Amino acid sequence: MSVTSACPTCGKRFRFPDDSKVGKKIRCRECEEPFVVEPLGDSEKPTGKPKRAKTAGGLPPRTVGVKPKPKKKSRPKSEEESSKKRKSQKKKKSNFTGSPAFIGGISTLVLALLIGVPFLSSGDDKPMEPPASYTSFQHEINNAFKCEYPSNWKMESGGKSGSVVWARIEFEDVKIRIRSSMGASAIGDIASNMGGDILGGAGGVEFDESMAPIASVHEMMHDQYAQDYSGYQEQQPKKIETGFGDTRISEFTASGSWGSTVRGVRASMLGRDLQWTVICDCPEKDWAVCQPVFEHIVKSMSRG
Ligand SMILES: [Zn+2]
Fold this sequence. Notes:
Blueprint: E1 3-6, E2 13-16, E3 25-27, E4 34-36, H1 75-96, H2 100-125, E5 134-138, E6 145-150, E7 154-159, E8 165-171, E9 174-181, H3 182-202, H4 213-226, E10 230-234, E11 238-242, E12 245-255, E13 261-270, E14 275-283, H5 287-300, E15 302-303
Antiparallel strand pairs: 1-2, 3-4, 5-6, 6-15, 7-8, 8-9, 9-14, 10-12, 11-12, 12-13, 13-14
Helix pairs in contact: 3-4
The protein binds zinc ion.
């Protein structure tokens, strides 16, 4: 039985083929905010008041309010009808199998498949064009951040003041998600306090890279984003400079659909009171074109 649930942050509804996700934490595809899947009741309103997923961690999974599907009506009649149809089709078929028209039809079909399939797959394998130009973007909520993105790629953004702020850039099968995290800003504070102590005590001695605040934040955010993919594997982070200052970026691979591979990058940066993640992925065939684009977007990230 399918389950409908709604994101408590943005209200977007999701249908799940069964109840296996009920009680599990997922990330909203619309606003990027994590939430616990709860089936909508008959009132079709989200159950309970909006909650930050991290505070819902201790609650038991809810399994109430699964809406039963209405029973299909008037089966017997339609079955009778379709069996009649089938019979008449059978009759027709048996009359036609021997005829030249039927054989001709089959060979045309085979020919179409032979010609059509290579056409389809060659279109699919064609690498995408690199973007010709970039456009500046300024997030509308409190000027939360700025970045640049390819002019012909689709940009959407949203969020809530004082809560999560997000943007999504898409082009064909390429996706870039940018989002703030309140939870991690606390982590960032802790990390920068730690870093401060270490820096203060180190005085002139070479700073241990693994102890940089952003390095620990980047590591801590790994699990949150890795769970959005299957077979997520990440390489060692690299240190780069963006408009947010010291940034960490890691390349990753994951499993796509139909046994394909996706490649991407995950980047973490620290704002004044928000932590920012940019996560980008593309089909493996587009990686050569996308990798510099992803890096361009990450590097262009700055305070708005
Ligand atoms: Zn949402």
